[in-house]
Amino acid sequence: MFKGLKSVMALVFMLGQAWAVVSAAPTQDASIPLSYRWGRGIDWPAQNLNIGGYFNSSYQKPERLPDQLALDSLSVFVTWSPHQRLRFFTEVEADEWLSTERVQTLNNSIQAERLYVDILASESTSFRLGKFLTPIGRWNIIHAAPLIWTTSRPLVNQPGSFSPHLNGLMLTQKFEITELSGDFSVYADNSGEFDVFDAALGFQNAFGGRFNLDIADEFHFGLSFINFQNEALQTRLARNNLFGLDLSWKSNGYELAFESIYRDAEDQQGEEKGFFVQGVAPLVDSVYAVGRYEYLNGTHELIQTDTKVFVAALAWRPYVPLVLKTEYRFGEDNQLLAPSGWYSSIAMFF
């Protein structure tokens, strides 16, 4: 009942705790006025503050299911850097608030999608404390609708495989080896106790890490691992081990992405493995063709599945902050998890 109120209260508390820091820190020239740029939000240079966000609205026409028009997400970002080594960030989101299927109250739909503080210990070492996106693969950590190519989300990145959020602490270390660079992160989560951020049925607790290697400007390689126990309404679930591998290549408007996971638990959650491969090619006038193949096998959300999904899509980016997408999704044994049909959306940073 108080989900939205708790999220807002958590934000107010976090900003209040930081005010003592910012009041003592040097600020920029107070004569620099506030300014707004489309897609980059409102800048207040005197206080190192930025307010922005995005929205995503979709139309879904799945086969053998009702059509749906929805405002899937309306997110507001607040970024505050009171000191060169300190940054506060929050994303407050109205999630699945309005649709032709139902209308939720703001109290039930508003949540803190992200709410954390970054502390830069050195040029290469940083700490993050709060609620942040689970660093499994690449899709989950850049999943904001204006940044991705399709309306639908790959099965291996859905909450049925792992919670998209962590509540806890993460250490990130950057490195350089000859001509290679990258970073690795280790983290610990205790969502079952540290629950002011409403991680509903996410992790009970977790620990893991991610390794990212930039082989070239165009090619990136990543490995992920997480050991976690899920929240459960009635039963105590066994711990899960999940391993991830991801590859990303971009050049001259062309893109190729691959992500795979393997998850195992010694109870009814069972074993799950899957992957997706996605390609992007520029066409004309900021229009891109997108194709994706997905495979998922095992126990997903306690459903035994051997699912294959194909997505054929077009994305039009007439301006950098704006993207219009349409796709047709089809597959084999996919009706429960990823129904075939037409899906379209409009997403924009503001």
Care to give the gist of this entry?
By secondary structure, the protein is mainly beta. The chain is 7% helix and 59% strand. A hairpin with a 3-residue loop joins strand 1 and strand 2.
Largest beta sheet: strand ordering: 3-4-5-6-7-8-9-10-11-12-13-14-15-16-17-18
N-to-C terminal Cα separation, in Å? 30 Å
Going by helix content, strand content and strand pairing, the class is: mainly beta
Largest sheet descriptor: 16 strands, antiparallel, barrel
Q: What's the SSE pattern? A: HEEEEEHEEEEEEEEEEEEE
Rg estimate, integer Å: 21 Å
**What is the count of β-strands?**
18
Helix amount:
under 10%
Low-pLDDT runs? 1-27
Q: If helices are DSSP runs of H or I spanning 4 or more residues, what is the number of helices?
A: 2
Average pLDDT figure? 89
Question: What spatial form do the alpha-carbon principal axes imply?
Answer: globular
Query: How much of the polypeptide forms β-strand, as a percent range?
Result: over 45%
